[in-house]
Amino acid sequence: MTTNNNTGHFGGLVGFKNPPKNGQFKKGTSGNLKGKKKGVKNFRTDLLDELHTKIEISEGGKKVKITKQKALIKRMINGALNGDIRATNTLVPLILDFSGSEDVKNNSKPLTEQELNILKNFLTDDDDL
Q: Which tens digit of pLDDT belongs to each residue from 4-22?
């Protein structure tokens, strides 16, 4: 086994797991001094806060207060109904994702005897390869 004769500026051994002393953190301080400030919100939090703020709109001749999120949904649906292709292309996947998805998941039925035999045969044939 060989020894490492590299020394740092202050005479200490420098090498694997032994960084120079002048590159190490000083006592009482930690890593990222210019890191995230306390109380600064991330993008997700800001977006959710903004979507939940209420705005006043005119609906059917009446002034109604609704969230910005609901206003965006209403605008997208109205655009799709008026023939806006981009609104329709955005809305259709959302409808498919959120409407009836629980019914499809809960409607699965157990395999029949015949289906189980097919799976067993497939798995045993696969082991012979």
A: 566 555 566 888 888 888 8
Distance CA 14, CA 10 (A): 10
CB 48 within 8 A of CB 37: no
Q: How far apart are CA 129 and CA 123, in angstroms?
A: 11
Cβ pair 25, 31 in contact under 8 A: yes
107, pLDDT greater than 80: no
What confidence score (pLDDT) does residue 43 get? 92
DSSP calls for 64-129? EEEEHHHHHHHHHHHHHHTT-HHHHHHHHHHHHHHSSHHHHHHT--PPPHHHHHHHHHHHHHHHT-
What does the block give as tokens for 26? 């000083």
